[in-house]
Amino acid sequence: MPASTTTVGAAVLARLAAQAEVLAALDPAVRADEPDSVHRMRVACRRLRSALQTYGRLFAGSRTRELARELKWLGAVLGQARDREVLGRRLLSGARDLPPECRPEELAERLARWSQEEYERVRPEVLLAIDSPRRRALAVALNGLLADPPLRGRAARPALAELARVAAREQRRTAARVRAAQAAEPGPDQDTTLHEARKAAKRARYAAETAEPVAGRPARRYADRMKAVQELLGEHQDAVVAAAALHGLATGASAVPPGPAAEGDGESVRAEAFGYGVLYAGQLAAGAVAREGLPAVWARAAEHHLADFG
């Protein structure tokens, strides 16, 4: 895609077409419950939605807003299953590393059952969504947009300068959210602002991915740096979610059916409660490490100012 002749509209449509192809190809894999298929479809939804929102001014009418809304719906349904996969893996990994006094194998076995039951509880919703008229209508609408895009005049502008301008805007948005998160009081408010900063970094990363076929290595380097911010803050968010789940499990808010060896075994019950406490403390520590690492990771992402990608 020659940078000197490509328009911003063509670059954005290429991004949308590539992700639409990924999304369509994953339907059979999700139905078959292939490993990582739900995650890959969710990411495709997010990339499509991000492009439609980030570059929405290139399109006339309301079609892009309607598509973004439907992609948010599908991504949310997929997210229920994906989030349970991620949480289950995280808790199981921690449980297996517990000291002997926590009876790690017993606790891991119980958490594995709980995780599987949670996943199986939401999976029917994923299958219903994949095979629903709403999902088919989304595909038709997306293909229609690509076949006859309602581009405004500004879509004919040279791609490189426009893509660089958008990337710089997303960098500023992320910087504002990172500053807000660092200024927030520790606790739920800071957790929320850090999650918002993560979403901004992800959107900035996706903007750079859209620019990469035109801008090449500078855009790829920018995307990599925003990915590092996103992943660090993703680790923080995963720790927050895991800590909340462990609190629910320890207090009985989220029931885990006892195994045969635990029924009537007071020592096992105490070991389980202790294990949940140790895991909970571990998640708090993981969150703290992520927060402490943010200034350095963000400084690296912020040092590359994008007047252009040249």
The computed structural class is mainly alpha
Give the averaged pLDDT, no decimals: 91
Unreliable parts: none
Q: Give the termini separation.
A: 15 Å
Kindly state the number of beta strands. Answer: 0
Largest sheet, if any?
Answer: none
Helices, by number, come to 10
Radius of gyration based on Cα positions? 22 Å
Order of helices and strands: HHHHHHHHHH
User: What share of the residues lie within helices?
Assistant: over 70%
Describe the protein's architecture and organization.
With 310 residues, the protein is mainly alpha-helical. It is 78% helix and 0% strand. The protein is built from ten helices and no strands. The protein has helices spanning 8-25, 27-31, 37-54, 63-96, 104-130, 133-147, 159-183, 188-215, 217-251, 266-302. It is globular, with a radius of gyration of 22 Å. The two termini are 15 Å apart. The model has no long low-confidence stretch (mean pLDDT 91).
Task: Spell out the key features of this protein.
globular, 10 helices, mainly alpha, 310 residues
Reconstruct the topology from this structure.
Elements: H1 8-25, H2 27-31, H3 37-54, H4 63-96, H5 104-130, H6 133-147, H7 159-183, H8 188-215, H9 217-251, H10 266-302
Helix pairs in contact: 1-3, 1-6, 1-7, 1-8, 3-4, 3-8, 4-5, 4-6, 4-9, 7-8, 8-9, 9-10
Describe the structure concisely.
The chain is mainly alpha-helical and 310 residues long. The protein is 78% helix and 0% strand.
